[in-house]
Amino acid sequence: MEFRDLALQMALYLFFAANMAVGQYNTSITSSMVVKRLLEGYERVTPAGATVVELGVYINSFDNINEQAMDYQVNIYLRQQWHDRRLKFDYSGDPLSPDMIKLEDGMWNKIWVPDVFFRNEKRADFHSVTVPQRLLRLYSDGRLWYVSKITAKLSCPMKLKKYPLDTQKCPFIFESFGHTLERVVYKWLPNSVEKEPFEMPQYQLIGWTQRDCSQNYTAGAFPCLQIDFLLKRDIGFYMIQVYIPSILIVILSWVSFWIDIDAVPARVPLGLLTVLTMTTQSAGANSHLPRVSYIKAIDVWMCMCLLFVFASLLEFALVNVYSRKEFNIWRRTNSMMPVQNGRKHHHHHHHRHGSDGAEEEIPLKKVVTTPSGISLHMNGKSDYASLREDEKRFLIEHKQKARHIDKISRKIFPVSFILFNVVYWVTYFMLPDD
Description:
- The chain has helices spanning 2-39, 236-253, 264-285, 297-333, 388-430, and strands spanning 51-66, 71-83, 100-102, 116-118, 121-126, 134-139, 143-155, 167-176, 184-195, 203-212, 215-217, 220-222, 224-233, 344-353, 359-369, 375-378.
- It is of the alpha+beta class.
- The model is unreliable at 15-29 and 338-387 (pLDDT under 50).
- This is Glycine receptor subunit alpha-2.
């Protein structure tokens, strides 16, 4: 009994499987017959009248944004829809007749399809792994739905005045290559721009705008549609790589104000090191940018940081020169003052012969050499005053003045740099993008 039930189930299964196979075969034959009949006498020319072509894109990825080459790469599904009355069919009397036919690969070469091209394209490719990634559907009312997967590199004229605090507008322009507005009209599909959730390393896709960009050429007015992608640059990378290091270098240059003015071997290398570091960083910040003729936000920042660092080095030079110059002037002014304490005395004598022929020694003057190298010529009868204490006191007083300049610089430089930061960030955050 169990064997008979099992045999009956197997027979029913084979019966239904055979019916399904026959149905699919009949449907396949019907679709092929419909397409074959529609293409009999079909000419691959533009349909009569003004054909309305509706366009839309689905964005898979958005990457390789290159400021130097001013381009970007996008991977999309390009969707096109239009009506061709020559391809209408109606087999409602046949229950196996489909309302929609998926045309086989290569059928887009046998019927008319819109000649859409990307006006700002640098390079574009269809995807064909593992099969040509194109879809062409024909509906009974003559409507065609054509989808193709494309990767395109497109030009994006960038304005870098606010770089790296900028927002770029990158266009994607669709235009007819050979048909004027009298023959083809472009319109947007409903939900014409959609995107896959994705992230970019340095930008955020904050939105897009759409517009008609049809314009007149010598050959006529050609249909055109344009998408402008709004790309806001992420500041995080530049804060870590540019702004914070340059701020630290500027602060490091202020350490010089806390080093004594007599420590020349310490202050000079510190100043030179910070200047050279800022110069190197400035060159690195602009290495991946085009050589534009206008000033960028990053140029303003790096130039001002370099100016602060150079001013710190210059401040030490001025303080050092000031203290030495004042002392040298004072020393020259007082070089003829008589001294006696702590000085070397050199007696100069003049020898002459007396009336009796004997040699007579006459003291003329005394040369006094100070520890600072001042040679004072005195006559032997002078009362020498002390110069060593005056010299030390004058030198200390002027070094105190130089140190006072350092103390003032400790306040002026940070306050000035903070004010510059306030003006810089407020200006470039509030400045509108062109």
